[in-house]
């Protein structure tokens, strides 16, 4: 019945090869580039004819990209939703067209859309836990003292929302620690640098920076140095991702630690799609496990960077 059809995400037929749409949010930083490459690489081994679209940092463009994939009658849409709410109509349109959607790396608003019902599953990291781990490192490194600047990711994106929640909850329990400012740097290096430069004028006594990704952390380090501060000494820097630049900064003593956020979604997405086509039950959340890098292992783990 129609009711039943709407209660479940569309099925994926078993075929030798698939036409797969990959809707990327933007492709302008090392993390995104590594993710795109992982999808392109797996397309060859998984027998996917990949239809790739880069939304260039626009949720509206990403919605149009998904609509375009629906019009092209792809078998499966792999979506990295830029923001939690604006991409929901695109997910619903694909469902209506009978095309299954697998969300990777970022999630959509869980109050509105549900895995198994509207899309197949979310494959990705535990962003709340990433924020928590960054905060726990900072508490330990400072003995629970400090004035913190937080550089947030893209407003309305699931990693920004959840990395903030995980971090802020831990810090709120520390009477000696305070987040003196929290502002978006849009996950971008130069934005992070600019925001840090401005915030340093209002808060010259800051002792720590928590950036929601490594690109903004690297930008913040540049701003700190331009202001005559010594990142890693006067001001501790902690962030998330595990890029080569961040591992290098940790090894050089300019950055304290970074929580890995793996961008390598290709193999796990291929495996999940195959299982789904076979009719196996897919969990609502296929969790990606992340490592942790600080001065004890950054140099040795440099090959993990991208
Ligand atoms: O969704 C994951 C985040 O998006 C990464 O941490 C960031 O670098 C990217 O742009």
UniProtKB/TrEMBL annotation:
- Any one annotated GO CC term: cell envelope
The terms under GO molecular function for this entry are: carbohydrate binding
Periplasmic binding protein domain location is 20-281
Q: What is its main location?
A: other
Its localization reads: Cell envelope
Listed Pfam families: Peripla_BP_4
The alphabetical list of record keywords is: Signal
Which family does the record assign? Belongs to the bacterial solute-binding protein 2 family.
Q: Per its record, how is this protein called by name? A: Candidate Ribose/xylose/arabinose/galactoside ABC type transport systems, periplasmic component
């Amino acid at each position: 019945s129609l009711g039943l059809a709407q209660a479940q995400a569309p099925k994926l037929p078993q075929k030798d090869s698939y036409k797969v749409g990959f809707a990327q949010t933007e492709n302008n930083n090392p993390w995104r580039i590594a993710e795109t490459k992982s999808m392109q690489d797996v397309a060859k081994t998984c027998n996917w004819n990949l239809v790739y679209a880069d939304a260039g940092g626009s949720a509206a463009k990403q919605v149009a990209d998904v609509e375009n994939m629906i019009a092209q009658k792809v078998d499966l849409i792999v979506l990295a939703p830029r923001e939690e709410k604006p991409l929901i109509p695109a997910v619903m349109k694909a469902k209506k067209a009978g095309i299954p959607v697998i969300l990777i790396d970022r999630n959509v608003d869980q109050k509105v859309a549900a895995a198994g019902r509207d899309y197949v599953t979310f494959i990705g990291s535990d962003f709340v836990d990433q924020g928590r781990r960054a905060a726990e490192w900072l508490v330990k490194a400072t003995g629970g003292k400090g004035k913190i600047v937080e550089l947030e990711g893209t407003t309305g994106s699931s990693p920004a929302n959840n990395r903030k929640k995980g971090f802020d909850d831990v810090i709120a329990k520390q009477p000696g620690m305070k987040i003196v400012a929290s502002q978006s740097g849009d996950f971008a290096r130069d934005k992070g640098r600019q925001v840090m430069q401005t915030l340093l004028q209002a808060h010259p006594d800051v002792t720590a920076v928590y950036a929601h990704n490594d690109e903004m952390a690297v930008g913040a380090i540049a701003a700190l140095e331009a202001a005559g501060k010594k990142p890693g000494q006067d001001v501790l820097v902690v962030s998330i991702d595990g890029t080569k630049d961040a591992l290098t900064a940790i090894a050089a003593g300019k950055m304290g630690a970074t929580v890995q956020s793996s961008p390598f979604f290709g193999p796990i997405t291929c495996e999940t799609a195959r299982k789904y086509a076979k009719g196996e039950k897919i969990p609502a959340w296929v969790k990606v496990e992340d490592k942790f890098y600080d001065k004890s292992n950054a140099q040795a783990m440099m090959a993990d960077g991208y």
